[in-house]
Amino acid sequence: MSLPETIAKQTDARPPVAIGHVRLYVSNVPEASDFFVKIGLRLITQSEQLAVLELRGGTHLVLRTSSDAIAPGINAPFDLIVDDVVATRDTFKKWGLTVSEIETGRIHSSFNLTGPDGYLLTVTSSHTGGREV
Fold it and tell me: What are the respective helix, strand and coil percentages of the chain, to the nearest 5?
């Protein structure tokens, strides 16, 4: 057993390593930040050029202003996981957000959510099997 595994087993059941930060370049940081807060991320800090938002598990989404134009329809460089993909899609649709139909795969069910600058955000069903993450 490695040291991190030993430490993790002594303190809690979660894996000892997580993704710290993911970045997304957007044309308007405050508007993008508002969008991500609306769908459930926690705002940590925001300015005109930078925002930091927190996801479950402590991962931070860092929004920065892009110097290049962003073409709509580009897949975001990450996906989002939710406990109830059907209820989440229904809620987003009721809010007037643009969502695709749910696709069912071998492991996950997912849909696309159109986000800031036309990014396509894949929203995926959780597969933790009740484990703490």
Answer: 25, 35, 40
